[in-house]
Each structure stands twice: as C-alpha cells, then as structure tokens.
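Researcher: I'm comparing several assemblies side by side, and this is the next one on my list. It has 281 residues spread over four chains. Same procedure as the others: predict the full complex and return the structure.
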Amino acid sequence: MPELPEVEVVRRGLAQWVVGREIADAEVLHPRAIRRHLPGADEFAARLKGRTVLSAERRGKYLWLPLSGAEEALLAHLGMSGQLLVVDPQTPPERHLRVRLRFEDGGPDLRFVDQRTFGHVMLTPLVHGVPEPIAHIAPDPFEESFDEAEFTRRLRARHTEIKRALLDQSLISGVGNIYADEALWIARLHWARPTETLTRPKIVELLAGVRTVMGAALLQGGTSFDALYVNVNGESGYFDRSLEVYGRRDLPCSRCGTPIRREAFMNRSSYSCPKCQRKPR
DNA sequence: AGTTCAACCTTCACGC
DNA sequence: TGCGTGAA
DNA sequence: GTTGAAC
C-alpha cells in the first residue's frame, strides 16, 4: 500500500497545471453537468471567462478552484464516475466530456468527464474558504482541518453502527461504500459495531485504514472501479486496484482464508470476513 | 426521528 | 445476434 | 454518491 500523502499528488497535479491561469473559454457539452444554482450554460460560461484560477482544494469527492474577482469558486462534484482531467487541448473530446475549460495560455484544458451524470460542476460563493453547497460536509481524513480527537468524540456520541457513521458525510467525508468496507476489514471491525463501544486505539486504527484505502484510490484518480473509469492519466485503475473484500464474495480472505461474505445493508452491498470481523453480540 | 428506498443517468456484463 | 436484467 | 420522499 502506498504511503501518505498521496492526496498531495492529486492536489499538486491540479495546482501545477491550473493555478494562476486565466480562463479563456468554458464550454458546456451536457446541460445536466451544471445543474443547480445557475440559470444555464450560457451564463455559466460567461461568468467564468476572464477569471483566474487561484488555487486547488479537495474535500472528499469534491474539488474546487477559487477564482479571482469575487469570493467564488468553481466546484466539481465527482460523484461515482466523474473525473476532472487536465489534458492537452489537442486531445480529441472524451466520450463523456461534459464541461471543457480552455485557458489563455494555450496550455492544457481542464475537462470534466462523467459517464453517469451524477456529478456536476458549478460556480458558487465561498464561505470561510469553503464552497457554500458543501459547507455541511465534514473534512476528509487527509485535510489539515480534520481533527481526530473531535472526530472520535462525535463518533462515540452518535450511538449508531460504525459503517453508518463512516458513510455520514456530516461526520467524515470521502468514505463511500467500497472504502468503508475495505477500512473496516483492515481494522477488523464488523459493520454493525456500535460506535460508543469503540476504544480510542481502535478508532485510530480505523482512520488509518480509511487513509490507506482512500489514498490508494486517490492515487488512481479517485473513483476507479470499472475498467471504463479512468484516472487523471487516462489509464484504468482497474488492474492495479487491490480490494481485499469488496466484490469478493466467496473468495478467501487474504488474512485467514475464510470465504468473504456479502450482506445487504443500507440498500447496498456489504462485504466482510466472517472470521476477522466478528458480529457484535 | 430514524431508517429504507427509489431516483438521478449511462454503460457494460451476464444469461437466455 | 439480441434483448432484458442487474450492477457500477 | 447524494437527495428527498415514504414508511
């Protein structure tokens, strides 16, 4: 498993190419890619033109670029299949290209590509440095503002099941269904474990698991499950992905050899090792 | 109040 | 070969 | 992955 800070690779990748650059033109190729908070594609494009990108930030599945002028940012929500790509302007349009930003310097485009249209980009005001629509989203474990003691306190005050808590974006962000299952396996925790029974060291272990899984995924460009989902380099993360439990029903646990089980939970799949992750009584 | 569930979309793998 | 289904 | 409606 790669070591920290993998996130910085992604962030630097964005910052390196984008920061300080003036937007020449914004093109919306799919109306739903900018749904919400804006009248339409034309105004979206008009408001971006001539603005300069100041920096690049990330929170969970969100990336945002603060812009010159007003306290505003271009916010991208990647969803499950969305990607924010930095590519040579000569590159032919991607099959699922939704929004394309060209720059005055003639350098690489910033392209929002999203097969399933679950993600979107928008222009939004910043409040305390964070886009207004995601003000309720808690920091992810890679952010400097992520406070482990605070997280521990709030987690144990929840009185809920641990996986439910991990998927709660107001408590911790960046952890989806797959990452949750993987992190729980690493920490040898059953998804139904009551949060108030977790010891401080166990929570530390779990967070380490979350960072390991999330970091590996970020290295591959965020969401990359199917071979058709590609990373920032346009390569599939499919083959070098190393999932221990997710999607491995009946396959042996790499720690103890016990067949991995699949259970329905919260209207989705949950995978775990019956031996390593004992169900709480 | 807490929880489940369908909807939002496109594509692909699978079985018949 | 295609059509419906389930899953991402 | 997120939202909002329905139990």
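Model: For your comparison table: The helical segments of chain A are 6-18, 41-48, 148-156, 162-166, 177-186, 200-219.
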